[in-house]
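Board notes, transcribed. Complex of a protein with iron/sulfur cluster.
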Amino acid sequence: MPAQLLDRPERRLPAAPRLWIPKHVLVTRAAADLPHTAEILRRVEAAGVDDVRILPADRLPTAPKGESEREAYARAKATMAVVVAPPSALKPQPIPPSADWRLDLARGCPAHCQYCYLAGSLSGAPITRVHANLDEVLAPIASLTGTGSVTTGDALRGGEGTTFELSCYTDPLGIEHLTGSLAAAIAQVGTGRHGDGASLRFTTKFDAVEPLLALPHGGRTRIRFSLNAAEVERFEGGTARMPARIEALRRVAEAGYPVGLTIAPVMPVDGWQESYGRLLDDVAAALAGIPALDLTAEVITHRFTPSSKQVLEGWYPRTKLEMDESVRSVKRSKFGGVKYVYPKGTMADLRSWFEREVPGRVPGARLLYST
Ligand code: SF4
């Protein structure tokens, strides 16, 4: 038990997290004989999955004829595929402002958030594809560390070195009980296997942190929890409830991990100041008294693109999520892409509120950015 736990008041044991168990597991031919696949299949069997198929090829099967969009979505979301990460997942990509570089332990996520960031950015059926060639996925850590970066110079991140984001295309904690990839990455970086000067970071809406607590993390992985107001949480199907995420945040902070709040997607719901104020107060109460707390915060407002809206409306035809272009402002990327964000005045109100209230209500929190 970490020393700092000894002098803290006793707390009730957290309820066991609800873990995602896929109905179907597919293993591509190229992934079948890799050592990490054996570990994944051991976990899949222990989880009680009956339908495990080794495919004769590397292509995942397409949807059966006549299947509706809803049925295809439900089947894909209940499927995990063990695959070799494609070249696009192995090619280093800078991803400011979140981190210097992206690493993909997997692509896809078992949760059902009606605003999901992956809609429109990942093509094909929303199967959770976990990467079996873990050594290749993690290899860029050694080659890119110290090569210069996009965020290292940020004074608020001093000491983190070159940062690698693990949650661009998945929620790595939501599938960790089936893969073990996250723990392997944390321990490898924590013990300097890829050299010094690298840090990992990921964001999660899950709470199964127990297997991470005793890892030799060396303070080199920042675990951020995606948190939101209760009015937005109702759009986050299949994830851990907010109190469970906040409890998990407390537990990893007590285990000495640097931690973070990813407050996203922020929505100006009725009474948003009170709702987000309550959330920040709950976080402050959970983290009170944790010694040497290292806490960052990132605030990201809701946005959507024409393609993400089209995909999400197919997946969640009855959603109450507001995606109305007529009440939004258009933001164009330098490559001509279009995003719909909140109007300027709303963005300014949200930004100034979070810039004041995050450090004001949560002692020690360093706001990295608000966008
Ligand atoms: Fe998408 Fe993240 Fe929700 Fe998973 S947890 S469904 S990646 S928004």
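Residues 135 and 199 are 17 Å apart (CA to CA). The radius of gyration is 20 Å.
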